[in-house]
Specification:
This protein has 17 helices and 22 strands. It is an alpha+beta fold and about 600 residues long. Strands 6-9-10-22-21-20-17-11 form an 8-stranded mixed sheet, with helices on both faces. Strands 1-2-3-5-4 form a 5-stranded mixed beta barrel. It has a 5-stranded antiparallel sheet with strand order 12-13-16-14-15. A hairpin with a 2-residue loop joins strand 20 and strand 21. The longest helix is centred in the first third of the chain and has 23 residues.
């Protein structure tokens, strides 16, 4: 017999009744039913009920067993007594009558319970992550993550992609976030950077003649953490393709992502034919470039109904060039209580309030705005928005560049409050036609709005003859249920166009050569048209498991302060280490 087990704790079935078996695992819990002891024995695979009565030679050992100690059990498989089956367990028709028990790993008092799914302070959970990971829900999430990654690999290979690994120690690159820097011992005063993304390498793979690349790529960014973004590191499904246009990338990626959501979405409906929504349209209709399309509300421009109206606040705003009034429909929201609640919410967001119109029975508009603009304009707004008695509309006015984000938050709030959002589905969409440049108010200059390596629509002609802030890029995102889960673009593979694009953003040719020398040189020697994207593995897993925090789907995450409480990082370097790296610390002064 094997030293530790003949079967796992998920393997035994009625056909094993009468067999002598050996199991090993953790004591999940011990129950005393009238002097008979029942142990739920757990391993990675499942759970088996072990029984010992006072006549069993194993009774004394089980009586002393503590939760989460590791034991080996020898015993005979028998059918559970009638009426005690557990249909929720694959092993629920049998039990093992224990004849011998060996404690393999005793357990001290637990700092947090493993049995059950009760909430516990995050600090404790992360410090004792190895215990936290024993909990059923978290253990299942991590296994689901692994299965999703396996499925991604299989689907990518099925699409003709080849997996390559790109370097971890690389050069600093302006990907939009801070780099993690690694000092070089061999080259004093110089630093490697951990890759924010394999962007340049995957493009160089295309230069090298490999046609379709992918990898499950680790990425490192020194960013502040938030619920949908882990501090320090994350993983993405990274891919690149040669001799493609935007539609070719869409045709390759869409079935992969759709298939993942169908396979792991627990039967929830998944978008079949993804809509293509231009960035400007997404902002205009939804107030975000990652719209939650489960929310049916679509904002509309109702400026003409307020121009020259008796509602002077909006009328005066509309006298300014570019000013608009957007309406957020509120089906079934036509009560004073709900409208007041929305107004209070807007004030909590730092806004002066949120104007509204309610439509009572008989079609009459109510509220301060309706009283000021009159029944004719109120009726026209209702008709444009397709509203009926008992509905409401909410209004945001001014410069859309300044209010669109708030309008998007208001749309989300109205949809959630009125229970209009169908949470049991996955709505996927392509967001396309992103602006190539944006105005940086901080630096007072034109800068890249997204990926600097994307191809501008219109190519060199657009770069040399068009207002930079009107140039669109062959840049695209995938949005799902209010999250951006992927981003990519068709690349700018012409060296002269690359230099021109960077010069518009304030980088001269020498800077381009210095910072992107490898790619710049590669473009000189026959660069194929190419494009690709990267999908966030962590966010996809979060959506599919229903987790609300990325720490629930990552095996050893940091806390919100970017600290690993389990391993004690970041930690101080010894004087010897600093000397070897030719580093001297200049720590910030502490206030005494």
């Amino acid at each position: 017999m094997h030293r530790y087990r003949t079967h796992t704790c998920a393997a035994l079935r009625p056909e094993h009744v009468g067999q002598t078996v050996r199991l090993s695992g953790w004591v999940h819990r011990v129950r005393d039913h009238g002097g008979v002891l029942f142990v739920d024995l757990r391993d990675h695979y499942g759970m088996t009920q072990v029984v010992a009565d006072p006549d069993s030679p194993a009774f004394g050992a089980i009586e002393k067993a503590r939760a989460e100690c590791v034991i080996r059990v020898d015993g005979k498989v028998r059918t559970r007594p009638a009426g005690t089956d557990n249909a929720e367990l694959p092993t629920g028709q049998i039990e093992v009558f224990a004849t011998e028990v060996e404690v393999l790993g005793p357990a001290a008092d637990l700092p947090l319970p493993v049995f059950g799914d009760q909430d516990y302070p995050e600090e404790t959970r992360l410090k004792y992550r190895f215990l936290d990971l024993r909990r059923e829900k978290l253990h299942r999430n991590i296994m689901t993550r692994g299965a999703i990654v396996d499925a991604m690999r299989a689907k990518m290979k099925g699409q003709g992609f080849f997996e390559f690994q790109t370097p971890i120690l690389t050069a600093s690159s302006p990907e939009g976030a801070r780099d993690f820097l690694v000092p070089s011992r061999i080259h004093p005063g110089k630093f490697y950077a951990l890759p924010q993304a394999p962007q340049q390498y995957k493009q160089l793979i295309m230069m090298s003649g490999f046609d379709r690349y992918f990898q499950i790529a680790p990425c490192f960014r020194d960013e502040d953490p938030r619920a949908d973004r882990l501090p320090g590191e994350f993983y993405q499904l990274d891919l690149e393709m040669s001799f493609v246009e935007q539609e070719d990338v869409f045709a390759a990626v869409e079935p992969v992502i759709t298939g993942i959501f169908e396979e792991f979405g627990n039967g929830k409906p998944v978008t079949k034919n993804w809509p293509r929504i231009p960035f400007a349209e997404a902002i205009r209709k939804y107030g975000t470039d990652k719209p939650d399309l489960r929310n049916p509300l679509v904002m509309q421009d109702v400026s003409e109904h307020f121009r020259g109206s008796g509602f002077k606040v909006f009328a005066r705003m509309l006298e300014s060039e570019g000013a608009q009034v957007w309406a957020i429909p509120g089906p079934t929201g036509g009560s004073r209580a709900f409208c007041d609640r929305m107004n209070s919410w807007a004030q909590s967001e730092g806004q002066p309030g949120l104007g509204y119109v309610m439509w009572r029975e008989g079609g009459e508009g109510a509220g301060p705005i309706a009283n000021n603009i009159g029944p004719e304009r109120t009726a026209a707004i209702r008709e444009q928005l397709g509203l009926k008695d008992g509905d409401a509309a909410f209004f945001v006015a001014g410069d859309p560049e300044k209010f669109w984000k708030f309008a998007g938050l208001a749309r989300t709030r109205v949809g959630e409050e009125l229970k209009l959002v169908d949470h049991d589905r996955f709505e996927l969409a392509w967001i396309v036609d992103f602006p190539f440049y944006e105005w940086s108010e901080e630096d007072k200059k034109v800068d890249f709005s997204h990926n600097p390596f994307s191809m501008p629509q219109g190519g060199m002609d657009a770069l040399t003859g068009q207002d930079p802030l009107t140039i669109k890029a062959f840049q695209y995102d995938i949005a799902c249920n209010g999250f951006e889960i992927a981003s990519g673009g068709i690349r700018n593979h012409r060296p002269e166009a690359m230099v021109e694009a960077f010069e518009i953003a304030g980088y001269d040719e020498q800077t381009v050569i210095d910072r992107f020398g490898g790619m710049y040189r590669a473009f000189q020697y026959g660069a194929p048209p190419h494009g690709g994207m990267a999908a966030g593995v962590d966010r996809i897993v979060m959506l599919l498991t229903g987790a609300t925090n990325l720490r629930e789907i990552s095996i050893f995450p940091m806390n919100q302060r970017a600290e690993d409480l389990l391993m004690g990082s970041p930690s101080e370097a010894s004087p010897k280490q600093l000397k070897e790296l030719h580093l001297r610390q200049a720590l910030p002064q502490t206030k005494g």
